[in-house]
Design goal:
Layout lengths: L11 H13 L2 H8 L3 H15 L4 E4 L2 E4 L1 H18 L13 E7 L1 H18 L3 E7 L13 E5 L8 E15 H7 L5 H4 L3 E4 L12 H5 L4 E5 L3 H9 L4 E5 H4 L5 E4 L6 E9 L7 H16 L1 H4 L8
Parallel strand pairs: 3-4, 3-5, 7-8, 7-9
Antiparallel strand pairs: 1-2, 5-11, 6-9, 6-10, 6-11
Helix pairs in contact: 1-2, 1-3, 1-4, 2-3, 5-11
Length: about 300
């Protein structure tokens, strides 16, 4: 069937449905947000494709991604959304920073950067909602259902915008009680005689985080976890020596930094977004809030001063 021969003016309602699918990456999630069922969403996307003369969506491993035609259609859909929003505006402009923004980020960044930044942003924009998925991984090639990602290490992505947010430092730490019981290592060689608290090696996807295995290859694992808060608490409990973000470890007086001249791994935080995401006022506002808070805490992230309470 030749879709080009049937091209016609798109239904604005169908455009708004496409916009919901583009933002969530899934028909079912978009249907729930619109108060429709999955079949209706699928049928109306098909009708939109027919009217535009081509496919607006392509299936990927992570969900649905926009085609080139779909991206053009979404830009038109955003204009429709903006126009509809003005109907109920009074004498003052309606708050455009509203709706759900979906983020994936590391545990520490989520807790100390995203959460306070969003809390402050919501004081001005109470209809904003943010969902955070905590993962430590490289940037996705297909980020269906996500508005932005925060990753460690420079991302290698296509059809995405990558923004450097800032850097943080990791160091070796042990609890005071642990050092009393097992002694304080004075060199890398002595450190290799102790056990490591860190990520599960077989599940670590970020090459930039492999410093302990690279610098002290003989150091055996003690307790491993995919969650950095577990690293901190396990180190405090004396499970071993932890390789920890300085901005997190520095909050605990019972932790002692070891060999700072040898272990001061400085890594970058990058923010990755779909090219069209910053056209959404809510996403743009959250991205700017994260950028500002990261910049404001530069020294704390680098471990040269404590995080503010």
């Amino acid at each position: 069937m030749n879709l080009q021969s049937t091209a016609a003016s798109p239904n604005p309602h169908h455009l708004l449905i496409l916009l919901a699918v583009a933002r969530t990456g899934r028909f079912t999630t978009a249907a729930e947000s619109l108060g429709l069922n999955h079949t209706t969403v699928s049928r109306q996307i098909a009708a939109l494709d027919k009217s535009l003369g081509g496919r607006t969506l392509a299936r990927t491993v992570g969900g649905w991604e926009l085609t080139d035609l779909g991206r053009r259609a979404v830009r038109a859909a955003e204009d429709v959304e903006t126009a509809v929003a003005t109907i109920n505006e009074g004498e003052q402009d309606a708050d455009k920073i509203t709706g759900v923004v979906r983020i994936s980020a590391t545990d520490g960044f989520s807790a100390f950067i995203i959460a306070p930044a969003v809390a402050q942003l919501r004081r001005k924009h109470p209809n904003l909602s943010v969902e955070i998925v905590n993962v430590t991984r490289r940037a996705l090639q297909h980020r269906s259902g996500l508005d932005l990602e925060v990753v460690v290490g420079e991302p290698q992505v296509h059809r995405a915008e990558a923004i450097l947010l800032g850097h943080y430092t990791l160091g070796m730490y042990a609890s005071r009680r642990y050092l009393e019981d097992f002694g304080t290592p004075g060199s890398i060689a002595e450190l290799g005689e102790h056990r490591l608290v860190y990520f599960v090696d077989s599940m670590l996807q970020v090459d930039a985080l492999d410093a302990p295995r690279r610098l002290v290859p003989g150091m055996l694992d003690s307790l491993s976890s995919t969650n950095v808060f577990v690293h901190v608490e396990a180190t405090r409990a004396g499970a071993g020596i932890g390789f920890l973000p300085c901005y997190m470890a520095g909050r605990h007086r019972d932790l002692v930094r070891l060999l700072p001249g040898d272990f001061a791994e400085r890594l970058p935080y990058w923010m990755v977004l779909r090219p069209d995401s910053l056209r959404q006022p809510a996403v743009a506002a959250v991205a700017e809030a994260l950028r500002r808070r990261t910049a404001a805490l530069e020294n704390a992230l680098l471990g040269t001063e404590p995080l503010p309470e």
